[in-house]
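Discussion board: Methods & Data

I've been asked by a reviewer to show the raw model output for two of the constructs in my manuscript, not just the figures. I'm not sure how much to include, so I'm pasting the format here to get opinions. Each protein appears as its amino acid sequence followed by a line of C-alpha cells. Is this the kind of thing reviewers expect to see in a supplement, or should I convert it first? Here is construct A:
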Amino acid sequence: ELEKLGLRDDVDLHVYEVPVEYQTVQRLIPALWKKHSPQLVVHVGVSGMATTVTLEKCGHNVGYKGLDNCRFCPGSQCCVEGGPECIDSIIDMDTVCKRVSALGLDVAVTISKDAGRYLCDFTYYTSLYQSRGRSAFVHVPPLGKPYSAEQLGRALQAIVEEMLDLLEHSEDKINCQHEH
C-alpha cells in the first residue's frame, strides 16, 4: 500500500518483502544496506497481538528461541555474537508518535521497547547494528483488525515522512555544530 502511495518527490522508496527466516535476514539486511546506502530503513512487521500501529524504540540481541519458517533457530539465540544487548534507533519515536497522532489520521499510534524476540526484533536489531541506529521498526495489526490497507498505508506514509524530517533536521544541527 505504501508503495502505491509513495513518499514525497525527493525520496526514493524501495520496498522488499523479507522472509521470516533468521539466515535470510542475516544475509539480506546487510546486502540491502550495501546496495542502497539508504538514509533510513523502516521495517514493517505484522503482529497478531497489535491493535495499534506501534513504533519500536530498540532492537534486542539475545533471547531468540522460536523456530522460523524453515524450522531453524540460531544456536547462539542471538543476532550478533558480542554485539550490545540492545540498540536504540536514532529516531526519536516519541516525537514521531506525537507528530503523527496530531495529524488526525484515523489510526492509533503507540510506542514499544520490545519488538518480541522473534523475526521482527531479529531483523530490527540486525538492521540497527548494520546502520549504527539509522533504522526503524513499525508493528502493524493484521489487515482489517482494525485497520484497512489504505489506513495503514497512509499511517506508514506519515510515519516515514516524519522520521525523515527528524533525521534531516538532526543532521542539519550536526553539520551546523561542525562548522563552528
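Construct B, same format:
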Amino acid sequence: KEVRVHGLPKHQPPKPHWYERCVQPCVAELLGSALFIFVGCTSVIENAEGTGRLQPALAHGLALGLNVAVLGNI
C-alpha cells in the first residue's frame, strides 16, 4: 500500500499477523505469570529463621525483573 506524503510515496509497514497480535501476547502473559507465581511460592517454602522478609522479597523482585527483561518486548 502506498501513501503519498507531500507528493512522495511512503510505504507503510505490513499489518502484524494474527498470531503476533493475539496469541503471542497471551502466551507471554501466561508464561510470565506462571514463572512469577512459581518463583514466589518456592521462595517461601523453606523460609529459614535468619532471612525474615528478605528472601521472598528478593525472589519476587528478581522474578519480576527477569519477566520484564525476557518478555517485555512482546
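Answer (T.O., handling editor elsewhere):
This is acceptable in a supplement if you add a one-line summary per construct. For B, something like: The longest helix spans residues 18-43.
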